[in-house]
Design goal:
Elements lengths: L3 H11 L4 H7 L9 H8 L7 H10 L5 H6 L14 H15 L17 H4 L2 E6 L2 E6 L5 E11 L11 E6 L9 E6 L12 E6 L8 E6 L2 E10 L2 E5 L8 E2 L6 E7 L2
Parallel strand pairs: 3-5
Antiparallel strand pairs: 1-2, 3-4, 5-6, 6-11, 7-8, 7-11, 8-9, 9-10
Helix pairs in contact: 2-3
């Protein structure tokens, strides 16, 4: 299964759209993402929410969602699964003919969007007589700092406070997050993998057992904090790595708590 971002980037290029043009086309469905948002989706730094994802599929002409994103060869979810381009064209022409007939057109049915309007509370539905108007409110987004220099999950690497990019994120990122960091190394596997982005809430103190971002003697680490009778240690989740025991004279600063 390809990553969602890889598939989005591939289909966008097939449609001959730039990231900015794709973001603009989503405005037809009530969304206003930036080109930076599309870039973040394609890099798998963040993911579109459910409604944004459906709008993306519509803009990019993706009918067989399972086939494109899950590599389901059966084509579940695509009414034209198994047909070649000419077959799809013929099927679409036949559907257009059926829609011209009152006999086959769906009668006065209250429109719903996947039945999730109450769950996400972004669909305004107003009934006017026998008509139902539905307006989709764009998902709330915000700009957050994502540091380009990876936090070392192995040997330690200095976290440059000015080396970052600003990315647009939505509800897929906790509202408590103050910044994001990309993990480097495998010492925090299996929970956090090399290259994975973690979202961090700034704080100056952590409880025993919490995972945080630490600055130790000028090097930045993503580790689990351990406090016991013998003192304080920074622990890797990968048992191949030994704990880092904090010694007298060490300078350690807690930069934040890793969320999720």
């Amino acid at each position: 299964m390809e990553k969602i971002g890889t598939t989005i980037a591939k289909k966008r290029k097939e449609a001959k759209l730039s990231q900015g043009e794709l973001a603009e086309r989503m405005g037809d469905f009530g969304f206003n993402p930036s080109a930076a948002s599309v870039s973040s989706w394609e890099k798998d730094v963040s993911v579109p929410n459910a409604l944004q994802f459906l709008a993306l599929c519509k803009v990019l002409g993706i009918r067989n969602i399972n086939g494109e994103f899950l590599k389901d060869e059966i084509g579940i979810g695509d009414p034209f699964g198994g047909l070649n381009a000419e077959g799809r064209k013929r099927a679409e022409e036949y559907i257009a003919l059926l829609l011209l007939s009152d006999e086959y057109r769906e009668k006065k049915k209250t429109p719903e969007i996947l039945g999730i309007d109450k769950a996400i509370r972004r669909i305004d539905k107003t009934e006017k007589g026998d008509k139902v108007e539905i307006k989709i409110r764009p998902a709330a987004t915000r700009i957050i700092k994502l540091f380009d220099l990876p936090v070392s999950a192995g040997t330690g690497e200095f976290l440059d406070g000015e080396d970052y990019e600003e990315v647009e994120v939505g509800e897929e990122v906790s509202a408590s997050a103050d910044f994001g960091l990309r993990i480097k190394g495998n010492s925090m596997e299996p929970r956090y993998k090399d290259g994975q982005t973690v979202w961090v809430k700034s704080c100056k103190d952590l409880s025993d057992g919490e995972i945080g971002i630490f600055l130790l003697n000028g090097d930045a680490y993503c580790k689990k904090l351990k406090k016991d009778k013998d003192g304080v240690s920074l622990i890797s989740l990968n048992p191949s790595y030994k704990p880092i025991r904090i010694k007298d004279g060490d300078v350690i600063t807690i930069l934040g708590k890793v969320l999720g």
